[in-house]
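tool_log.txt
---
The assistant was asked to compare two proteins side by side. It first ran the structure predictor on the initial sequence, then on the second. Raw inputs and outputs are pasted verbatim so the downstream comparison step can read them without reformatting.
(1)
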Amino acid sequence: MISTNPEWDIRNIDLAKKPIYAFTISGQTPIYTTHDLTCENITGTLPGYRPWLKTPRGATQSVDILAGSSSIGELECEIIDQDGALRTLVGSTDLEGSTVTLAVGYPGIACSNFVVLHTYTLYKILPARNYTGWLFRARDNQLKLKRTVYQHPNNSYPLDESNPLILQGTPAEIFQALYFWALNRPVAELDRSILTALDAATEGLYNTVRPFWFQLTEAFEVKQFLESEIFKPAGLYPVIDNLGRLSLRSFRPPAAGPNPVFTFSADNMVMLPEIDRMPILNEIVFKLDDYGDGPQTQLVYIEATSLSTYGRAGQHVIQSKGLRTVLGAQAWCEELANRLFRRFAGTPAALRGGAPVLRIEAFLLTLPVWLGDYVYLSHPLMPDILTGAKGLTNRLFEVIDREPDFAAGRMRYRLLDTGLTGLQAAHNWAPSGRDFVIEQSEIY
């Protein structure tokens, strides 16, 4: 959940409110707003501004938990060119690559209490339809991960067999090594507090086994490498916070238990939730020990109860060139398989069948809810497809899709059932005893 402030919170919970959006381009004045700040009684020292901004739609971001990936958010802001000043600015200044922010406030609050919603990088500027204004399009900082690394960061020579890039450590450590070292990006662009928490000894999550060891001898795209080789095999996915910082989330909750930041209810939703279900997953194949001639070890995990109940429903293949048996990869794979089965095999009593996925539409007051947050959902009319009862109370979900519609004053979300309702700590995640079959084979 993004950080707000008490003055902003008081205005935000009002159902009848007038959001004021402010768009800023780094190094440029004025800022552009949807309303006249003086007329709306915005207090404090006001920056130079022009009330020429149309209400933006907002940037959408979604995650694929099983693939360890998330979409690159795109923000488009249209600004009316009232006196040709924007045409002159665009024509005389290199704006692409600048950092842009979109903030929101309400009438009567201090200018300093506007809350930042998005911090993105400007990549394209186009004339609007009929040439009455300009479209400013920006993307989130995952765009910086789309770079291809051709050279070794230490010596600037091309990567090859005689000049390999060696990476070893926890997923968060390898992520940071690539971001700071290979891409030469600043520390401020990562949320290091979250990354440090993932590796904390109290979590027992990623620091007890460090099974990744890579020897990279050819060019690679950083985003694709991280998602397929690190995040997917580690049960992680990337998230961009409102300040533009890259962070990681695990589909296993913190050791202290999930901390729901909001409760969705009939009072703050504008429609009945639409219900879907994830496919049942009861066979997981890990391919590892790749020393340059393909994976030499295959681990197959089959969830026995799910298999007997549903038959062979779904297979999930995880392959990483860096997973090494000699570094403890088998224990790692077993733990990850157990976590995946606990959530997606459809066998726990609290999560019978495919995990429910809800699509909801809510009022704008839910705006601080962010991707990767844990939230409660309660609704007296919604059928509980896991029990057959009518009504749902404080069911725990994870936000996997966030789609603002500022013009309509609505927020749309997709929520994935965690299977954790009533299970408050991470060490309760795995059931007592491991009810799945493990098969190991060599690949020839």
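(2)
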Amino acid sequence: MTIRLIRNCTALSLLALLLPGTLAYGQTRTAAAPSLNDPQIAHVAVTANAIDIELAQLALSRASSSEVRAFAQTMVTDHTAVNEQAAALARRLGVTPEDNDVSRSLRDGAAEARRNLEGLRGAPFDRAYMDREVAYHQAVLDALDQVLIPGASNSELRALLEQVRPAVAAHLDHAKQLRAKLGEGR
């Protein structure tokens, strides 16, 4: 299934930073994936969750579809729980998540996505938000599989990322189903 990506999709910037050889805005990146240490991996994970929470909160106020609002509420609930688990793990390990180029790029992309989504309401918002959620969860799933999980040195951090992976995959499947249900309508 080809996923139509909207201009403001932060998933492409995440993929471009994390995965070598990915296409971003028509350009092929040949640089190697960044080497992230555990505090940086933790920060990327926390940042990715916080971004999805923020945009889901926007969806709760802008979406016209009750299914999109329910999906957004699930994103708030699930991603908040993961960030709480990550914070507890960081405290237990005495690790402070470390800001890095990947997490900064995620925040920049999220700010652009928010600006673009803020101009929409109702059905156009629903479609744009779900486009973004499909692409974003695919990018996060790819990053988990190809960079974050294999790059985690600490077994507890790796275990948390592995524990979260099925939920990200389920969110992706749900987002795809909901997006298909909303139809093209553009």
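---
observation on (2): Confidence is low (pLDDT under 50) at residues 1-30. The first helix runs from residue 10 to 18.
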